[in-house]
Protein 1
Amino acid sequence: MQVNKRLLIFILMVGVFGILNTEMGFIGILPYIAQRYDVTIVHAGLLISLFALGVALSGPVMPLIFSRFNRKYVMLLVLGLFTICNTISVFAENFNLLLAVRVIPAFFHPVYCSMAFTMAAEVAGVKAAPKAVAKINIGVSAGMVVGVPISNFLAEHISLSVSMSFFALTTFFVMMATAFFIPSMPAEGRLSYGEQLAVLKKPMVWASIFAILFLNGSVFGVFNYWAAYLANVVGLAPNLVSLLLFGYGLCNIFGSMAAGHLLSSRAEDTVKFFPFLLGAVYLLFLTGGDGGFLVAVLTIFWGVLAGINANINQFWLSHAAPEAPDFANGLFLTAVNLGTMAATTVSGMFIDSFGTKFVIYGGLLFLAAAALLFWGQCRKRRMNPVIGIDVS
């Protein structure tokens, strides 16, 4: 059975949307969950934080373990597990059961996502790989953007159960599409576990891990507090804050599309100058951060940069360890999640000490560290005109 490349990449993109939709969509229904299970909103927040922790912990391990198995069957396993756990969530009568069926699939999140990045790059070929991976990142962005407002709307206008059923139905339909339209894909000629772990001996891999940790932290360490910034510093009304955040998320998708072209043709320039462009946006926030129109325009442009950021992170680490793509993508998922957690903490410290406006300083601090690492690596890497980076 021949692989239909476009159909395969589309199914992978929708599959990643389903996984991220399950992860992020719960943000939109936390108040309803707190009310239904009679818990505080902070306690309900464990559904988000423990899921993220599960992804971070399993990122380097689970993709490595499953890299030796038939990819179609692994994808069916993960999608089936998400569907079952999401279905149980709909009918869970106590909070502890709901929490358990949230945490279990989180450990398999990196398996599907890392495999999706790897498969998209492989079927597209070396030259078109960044564009194919960018399409997978569109699924990531859509999952983060669409999941929250849809889950919130369904919970508000129909019921919490219907809202959570949306997560189960999404992964179920992708599972069916995978079963019927994706051929068997045995892991032929795969490296042993020891050979894949050997990439950790490469200094370039560790430098890449920390570079993307800092770069992703520079974005999400600020964005995670952006609703408070828009409300408290800029003084926007709640409806405008929601609209602007939604616009930011939609622009992530456009950023992913642009990144595919940039990383295919001008990879080194994109990586080297991206921190300076993002830094310029942050400095403009600092100098004109109380002007509503300017902040709105900058937030939309920042959304485009955030989409490019996600693609740079995956591209950079996967090219540091091309011989072990599944393991490298697992490391990528762990690094970006750890970066988000660390930067959120540091930016929160700036807020506690100086006020909400100074959350930008947390982003600038992480961005400076990322720029130093990226420029240091670019000096050591020999550029290849086909794939952009030669990591030999």
Note: The chain has a mean pLDDT of 83.
Protein 2
Amino acid sequence: IATPNHWHALGAVWACQAGKDVYVEKPVSHNIWEGRQIVMAARKHGRIVQTGTQSRSAPGTCEFIADLRAGKYGKVKLARGLCYKPRKSIGKVSGPQAVPDHIDYNLWAGPREPAPVMRKQFHYDWHWQWPFGNGDLGNQGIHQMDLCRWALGEQALAPRVVSLGGRFGYDDDGQTPNTQVMILDYEAAPLVFEVRGLPDAMGSSRMSHYRGGRVSVVIECEAGYFVGTNGGKFFDHDGKKVQSYASGVALQHHQNFIDAVRSRKSGDLHAGILDGHLSSALCHQGNISQRLGTAISREQLEDQCNGEELREQVFERLAEHALVHEKDFSKRQMTLGPSLAFDPKTERFTGELAGSANGLLKDSYREPFVVPKEV
């Protein structure tokens, strides 16, 4: 399944019900509820369901994770995902755009209402509109999010999340942030994720980096830190390279799916659907906080950190970067999402604003394109 995001879960559930095995691209879902429905469908119907997070099959990355599990670098102190990937404006249209003649728009829209198309480019730019996509957090970022969760060893969603961001540098038909930072506050160690779609300076094409990583992860451990995605390097705290892990794309990820189809053992999968659901849902957690946020000035931002050192650090990094591209925040302010409590067992938000947050756990569907409650 390599459709737009809003079709992933419905296609996967229907396939499982029809007795098919499934390779579903990331993110496996458009929302948290959908992801869990795919997991349930796969288990109920005994299907093999692989997620398209190919780094799970990258030999160098697997070797690093094995060393991490063996205690070679001590405890993980923080996992940081980076999606510093250039994303230009998608433009702004003055009215509805024509759907290409060769597209059955009713079928393409599927679970969503086939509303007027408000973007110049029909394909791909749906990523930046909420009804169909999940921003770069759920597009490129899901790969690095998955690696962060893998490194942390977490097999549940985060008990607290907060997001800060906005769409800076241009005014277009995109709705999702092109600049965002979120904190997933796991008890053992936090997960920080940063999205930057704009370069490090006005008029430049050079993207920012953090410890040399751009579209990467930085796993901070007691003994130093790892930087990479498909392979990478581990450095001590002085920045001296300790070990290299072979770089290379995970060509065997598809073969792993085929091997599991033949063995009929879902445990043989490198990126089974439960892992796909959890990592995709972490992106959704951050986006829910972001979508419930309110505009905030640079001056107000400091007061909202509540003395939390990590929050102050990551929020300040985002504000400094955004100011490069948006000198006047009165025109397009940063949006600070609420700090949301979450119950990993029920996969529902709790506490203040739980009603609003839980309202974003699931989309509205239209017949006959409805993700079933009973899978």
Note: Residues 165 and 180 are 4 Å apart (CA to CA).
